[in-house]
Design goal:
40% of the residues lie in helices and 14% in strands. By secondary structure, it is of the alpha/beta class. The protein has 3 domains: 5-10 and 19-201 and 237-292, Rossmann fold (3-Layer(aba) Sandwich), CATH 3.40.50.970; 319-472, Rossmann fold, CATH 3.40.50; 496-630, 3-Layer(aba) Sandwich (Rossmann fold), CATH 3.40.50.920. The chain binds thiamine diphosphate (TPP).
Length: 650
């Protein structure tokens, strides 16, 4: 049976439908989103909550001439479905498929690429400034931002700038009272007060539009009404804060009532000034399991549609879980330990810590910069703050790490989660730059564990250390430790040789040690004997270990799940250059100088030749090629003689 969704290839098709047909379309869109996300995983609850808002915006405005910037972009699935991507929607978040976030290269309707939060108002304001320079004033530039993302400082920097400019500009606040967990902070409480005060002032907006239509005296009447309103402000006007910042505040509006949304947006369209439209939605709307558990369904893996049960792949613990468990142990033993998250308590594994130690747990909102300087303050009071943050989001805090933590040598611990390839969230979320932006800062220590025991040891070491420490770890499971395995005592800056070899050494860090050990097994079956060292530390480097290795071989490979241009391998090269060791052949395996696409973590590591097979292949290719070059030439053919190539020159 044909559906309404079948009829929609672009936003213009929406305009052919009546509102009750749009309501049916909203139902179909929800079904499609639930179905696809139940297989692919993804940001279900946020997207379900924004379906009517998406349809209303596209119904009233004319994308791509009018531009809609989705903050974070995780709520944009309905937008993708009505802007020409419904036939490929099954591929969302898969390798080479539709992106889970807006992406300029994917569609002219994706006005701005997003993934990190709180950028939409700045981007839309920049678009509005450009529009005005080009003289196309009537086009609407629209930022759609959630209440969670409104906890990010950039949103206020942009509001501060926008209200003053008086540009034709619309900010839609999609308020569902949730970030990933419950929204935190004074702004969230303020928005809540507006909603519960039950004051609907869109009547004001409609009155303004009506007055404007009166010939000759309309404008004067509007000015008079505004003057009267001005004198009453603060007594009766909700959203006074936004009004004072230069916006016309409208709301709160029911974000699932398509008819009202469309009516209000049509009025908004006529007003050429900064408008702040406050829309109230339910996160997870239309699917009982996500309405009941919006946090769990914020970002989900594949799940059973009937029961809402997430389909677990294994029982192994992740690095994140080990971190959460370790934090509880540390907090139990040391009352100085406190934890800080920037709105990611669940994602960083701190939920249980928050329950057990509510006073020692701080969710500061989506405010990574603030989180770091806040931690600096706590450290100065004698506490041992652990800032748990994803590598990609810590990028925002670079100056705070330099200026507020490292320069003052404060003992702040950075638990840098999702360091490496994260998978389906793609280029906005891969954590492949943190070694680069951390290792050159004086006083900083940077390490990465290869397993759970090493991770626990590293956190204990970090607590004993009187200075800033970053411990990076990836988004993956930790190999189960054998019951007999014990924590190895090691000091800061101490790596280890895990396996000896005669055909060159791999120096790896973190999970790449395990991949290198696998690669070693593959090569061993071919008669190639490779040694593996576990560096553990990016800073300080274990130069004594490297010197030992270089006493045995002049052939090393450095492997990391990080950008090559500034990573661990670069640090090793810098050290070799300082030592003037020019006779060492260094092969560096890591992430080349490009943004890595989306896809399964394993798939992407395979493409990057960072899987065991990929590593084995690169070692085989590069080292065998080098050996061939060193072999005596067969004078007859001019080619390298074969047959002896696997006996590497140490
Ligand atoms: C800088 C940054 N930090 C953290 C995140 C992770 N994150 C993604 S969505 C989200 C919550 C956003 O809440 P809100 O804007 O209210 O949208 P909702 O999901 O409630 O619709 C967070 C914390 C991010 N995307 N960017």
């Amino acid at each position: 049976m044909a559906t309404y969704l079948d009829m929609i290839d672009c936003p213009a098709d929406l305009k052919k439908l009546h509102v009750d047909q749009l309501e049916r379309l909203a139902g179909e869109i929800r079904e499609r989103i639930i179905d696809v996300v139940s297989h692919n995983g993804g940001h279900l609850a946020s997207s379900l909550g924004a379906v009517e808002l998406t349809l209303a915006l596209h119904y009233v405005f004319d994308s791509p001439a009018d531009k809609i910037v989705w903050d974070v972009g995780h709520q944009s699935y309905a937008h993708k479905l009505v802007t020409g991507r419904k036939d490929r929607f099954e591929s969302i978040r898969k390798i080479d498929g539709v992106s889970g976030f807006p992406k300029i290269a994917e569609s002219p309707h994706d006005a701005f690429g997003t993934g990190h939060s709180s950028t939409s108002i700045s981007a839309a304001l920049g678009l509005a400034a450009g529009r005005d320079l080009r003289g196309e004033h009537e086009r609407k530039m629209i930022a759609v931002i959630g209440d969670g993302s409104m906890t990010g400082g950039m949103a206020y920097e942009a509001l501060n700038n926008a209200g003053q400019t008086m540009r034709n500009f619309l900010v839609v606040l999609n308020d569902n009272k949730m970030a990933i967990s419950k929204s935190v902070g004074a702004m969230s409480a303020y928005l809540n007060r507006i909603i519960t005060s039950n004051f609907y002032n869109h009547v004001k907006l409609e009155l303004e539009v009506l007055l404007m239509r009166i010939p000759r005296i309309g404008k004067m009447l509007v000015r008079f009404a505004q003057k009267v309103e001005e004198s009453l402000k603060g007594l009766v006007v909700p959203g006074i804060l936004f009004e004072e910042m230069g916006f016309c505040y409208i709301g709160p509006v029911d974000g699932h009532d398509l008819r009202s949304l469309i009516r209000i947006l049509k009025s908004v369209k006529k007003l050429e000034k900064p408008i702040f439209l406050h829309v109230v939605t339910t996160k997870g709307k239309g699917y009982l399991h996500s309405e009941n558990n919006p946090e769990g369904f914020h970002g989900t893996g594949s799940f059973d549609q009937e029961t809402g049960e997430v389909l677990k792949k294994t029982d192994n613990k992740s690095y994140t879980t080990i971190f959460g468990d370790t934090m509880i142990e540390l907090a139990r033993a040391d009352s100085r330990v406190v934890a800080i998250t920037a709105a990611m308590s669940h994602g960083t594994g701190l939920s249980r810590f928050a329950e057990l130690y509510p006073k020692r747990f701080f969710d500061v909102g989506i405010a990574e910069e603030h989180a770091v300087t806040f931690a600096a303050g706590l450290a100065l009071q004698g506490y041992r703050p652990v800032v748990a943050v994803y590598s990609t989001f810590l990028q925002r805090s670079y100056d705070q790490i330099v200026h507020d933590v490292c320069l003052q040598k404060l003992p702040v611990i950075f638990a840098v989660d999702r360091a490496g390839i994260v998978g389906e969230d793609g280029p906005t979320h891969h954590g492949v730059f943190d070694i680069g932006y951390l290792r050159h800062i004086p006083n900083m220590t940077v390490m990465q564990p290869k397993d759970a025991l090493e991770m626990q040891r590293m956190f204990r070491l970090a607590l004993e250390h009187n200075g800033p420490v970053a411990i990076r770890y990836p988004r993956c499971e930790v190999a189960k430790a054998a019951a007999t395995e014990k924590e190895q005592p090691f000091a800061i800056g101490e790596g280890e040789i895990v396996r000896h070899g005669t055909g060159g050494y791999v120096i790896a860090i973190g999970e790449m040690v395990n991949a290198a050990l696998e690669a070693r097994r593959i090569l061993a079956a071919e008669g190639i004997d490779v040694g593996v060292a576990n560096a553990r530390f990016v800073k300080p480097l274990d130069t004594a270990l490297f010197e030992t290795l270089l006493g045995m071989t002049k052939r090393i490979a450095v492997i990391e799940e990080h950008a090559l241009s500034c990573g661990f391998g670069s640090a090793v090269l810098e050290w070799l250059a300082t030592k003037k060791m020019t006779d060492v052949a260094v092969l560096r395996l890591g992430i080349p100088d490009r943004f890595v696409e989306q896809g399964g973590r394993g798939e992407l590591l395979g493409r990057l030749a960072l899987s065991p097979e990929g590593i084995a292949r690169r070692l085989r290719d590069e080292w065998l090629r080098a050996d061939r070059l060193q072999q005596p030439q067969d004078p007859g053919s001019g080619r390298a003689a074969s047959g002896t190539i696997i006996n590497f020159q140490p």
